[in-house]
Amino acid sequence: MGICCTFQYGRRVALNFYYKYFCSNLLSFMILKQPNTMKVTISSRAYSKILLHASKYPHKAVCGVVIARENSDSKIDVLDAVPLFHLSLGLAPMMEVALTQVDAYCKSNKLQVVGYYQANQCLDNNSPDVYAYKITEKLQENFNSAFILMVDNKKMGFECEFQACKLYHLQDNKWKYNEKDLCLADDETLSIVSQLMIGKAYPSLVDFDNHLDDLSLDWLNPEINKVVDNAASQVQE
């Protein structure tokens, strides 16, 4: 009887030790996997689409994702943006359908979804909400350093004098705003977007909601891509 009790007690001690050891190392691994610093650079094409999306629906909240080539977690060069919704931001099934199609496109082009963007409906509300956090946490299942870009509504305008995006990323298990780690890839980006705004290019932008209404509309926005490229060439001349 004494031997049996001693054996059971020893087993409990051993299990307790291994449980604490496993949890401690798992927590350390999760913290190590989250980069303390992360530099994000946005291309003219991606930045233009984000602001055109917000400009097309100024009375509504809009959202989408940004994509980049497969690279390190500490430096991300955003190449493009995919506008998703202006009607159904809170509908999880529609988001699942959209992300599945975007992921398929990314895999076929050696790209990956690296972040989520959102512009809120209210002018003074420029912070992520619960929905933004949940979607980005979902994206982190495939890309650990997935981040949030929030459109600063107060900096929106045809003149585009200021960068109008705010970067939030997960640091020390908390979502933090970091102004210094976000930059535009080209010095001409703001001029390009201003030209597009003045030229009223935003009505032709297609998001996934538009695509669902008319499947002939391409959510990759090849026409917008051409407009951005043409504007870039004119600004550089």
UniProtKB/TrEMBL annotation:
<dbReference type="InterPro" id="IPR005366">
    <property type="entry name" value="EMC8/9"/>
</dbReference>
<dbReference type="GO" id="GO:0072546">
    <property type="term" value="C:EMC complex"/>
</dbReference>
<protein>
    <submittedName>
        <fullName>Uncharacterized protein</fullName>
    </submittedName>
</protein>
<dbReference type="Pfam" id="PF03665">
    <property type="entry name" value="UPF0172"/>
</dbReference>
<comment type="similarity">
    <text>Belongs to the EMC8/EMC9 family.</text>
</comment>
<dbReference type="InterPro" id="IPR037518">
    <property type="entry name" value="MPN"/>
</dbReference>
